[in-house]
Amino acid sequence: MASRVLLHICCGPCAVTPLLRLIEAGREVVGFFANDNIQPAAEWLRRRDGAAQVARRLGIELVIADYNPLPHMRRSLADPAGRCRPCWAERLDRTAAKARELGCAAFTSSLLYSTYQDHAAIAALGEAAAQVHGPAFHYADYRVHWDEGIALSREWAIYRQPYCGCVLSELDRYAKKLRRPPAIG
After folding, report:
1. SS3 of 66, please?
2. Is the pLDDT of residue 1 over 50?
3. Contact 35, 94 (CB under 8 A)
């Protein structure tokens, strides 16, 4: 992998160990916060600020894309069960295009840190985006650093989100509670 890498950052906590590993490997890293999937806007702002805190702490440039959640919302509501793959594809495609624009030889994503994401699908989508836009997709399994990332994000007081990002993932988070009768008390 060439030295200049664009890292798609979904949030501050998920960016910690990918950034540390890339920096330790001698890469010049630029962060890219592009997450139209995050709702509501207040949540997007908290995650943006967390990503900025991590970028500042680790001394990397952070590019923040404009926020336009409506296309993502329409796509997700059209197929709630199949919403994740198009969401990953859109963000990886956007990152690959930005990597080309910024002159980065490669791109990757902090999605590869999460133990909740489908790494095979993300890798395939990253490779597809690389074919379209040119910069190479750098796959690394950052899940092995899960505990380190959690510990550092807590130590650094970085906002830790309770759900993936879209309102449908938050709804999934509360599914069991929504089926229970109200607590009367």
Report:
1. coil
2. no
3. no
CA angle 109, 115, 94 (to 5 degrees): 20
Q: What is the DSSP letter of 2?
A: -
Rounded Cα–Cα distance for residues 60 and 142 (Å): 19
- Would you give the DSSP letter of residue 79? -
DSSP 132-177: HH-SEE----GGGGHHHHHHHHHHTT----SS-SSHHHHHHHTHHH
Residues in Cβ contact with 17 at an 8 Å cutoff, skipping those fewer than 6 apart:
113, 142, 145, 146, 148, 149, 152
Q: Which domains, and CATH codes, for the chain?
A: 4-179 (3.40.50.620)
Report the alpha-carbon distance of residue 8 to residue 119 in Å, rounded: 15
Question: Are the C-beta atoms of 126 and 157 separated by less than 8 Å?
Answer: no
Per residue in 40-93, pLDDT tens?
999 999 999 999 999 999 999 999 999 999 999 999 889 988 999 999 999 999
Average pLDDT over all residues of the chain: 94
Helix ranges (DSSP H) in the chain: 12-24, 41-58, 70-78, 84-102, 119-133, 146-155, 167-173, 175-179
Token pair, residue 100, equals 């080309």
- pLDDT tier at 170 (50, 70, 90 boundaries)? confident
